Amino acid sequence: MNTPTASDVAIGIDIGGTGIKGAIVDLASGELLSDRVKLSTPEGGKPKDIVGTVTKILEKLTDAPADAPIGICFPAVVRNGRTMSAANVSKKWIGLEAEKLFEDALGRDIFFVNDADAAGYAEVRFGAARDRSGLVMMTTLGTGIGTAIIYNGVLVPNAELGHLQIDGGDYELKAAYSAKEREDLSWSKWAERLQKYYSELEKLLSPDLFIVGGGVSKNYQEFLPLLNLTTEIVPAVLRNNAGILGAAALASQPRVVAGADESPKEHPAAML
Question: Most buried among 94, 124, 209, 222, by the most CB within 10 A?
């Protein structure tokens, strides 16, 4: 293939509890410019081991420009480059300066972001909500419920709205796809729980669009038509590439270097 320039592309890396995948992304179209490289997440998910696996993936993406931006998404709350939680990886990530860890290991700047935020941003820029304005909410239905909020192209990070307290408890325990499987619920019984969850989101935030992601979204016709909402609700379209695409797109945003009396690096809100 013709070697693209850094202004055209970025690299996206999606770190999960079982696999880590990456690719070169065309920032205009949202298409992958390389094969998707995937390696298993090291057992235990320790920081040093995951950094090593990401390094191996980057070494395989030989067609990327040397200075292409790199975005990495991760299953944790990410605050100013620091991971404040850890899902399906080592607890050593909690409180870790993760962005700095990768930058020191790779010898270059990266952008580090929550995985649900990356997926939601990708759907707005390249997917189900492309060219849509207003308040867009992405919800991923899986082991838990991940959420992302994007308003007129601006990502509001770290929205943990899967953990809404409904009926006296954390409602993702009842409404996540894992609950459907665990309790062997029919689509209609599960949809009753989803109705309660999405109605609560409507009441709190009045969004303009819901996007439903997660592996179960491929079966959206089984449950989305059963919901009675005032907000339009549609399935995600980017599937397994959403994290890669969102991380790459966010990494391409301008970075502001703050003065000595401010935090050392900040990313402005991502604008489409």
Answer: 124
> Strand 70-74 vs strand 9-15: parallel, antiparallel, or unpaired?
parallel
pLDDT at residue 156 greater than cutoff 80? yes
Tell me the whole-structure pTM to 2 decimals: 0.88
> Is the pLDDT assigned to residue 258 strictly greater than 50?
no
133: number of CA atoms within 13 Å, CB side? Answer: 0
CB 132 within 8 A of CB 110: no
Specify the residue for token string 């790459």: 248
Burial class (CB in 10 A: 0-12, 13-18, 19+), 46: middle
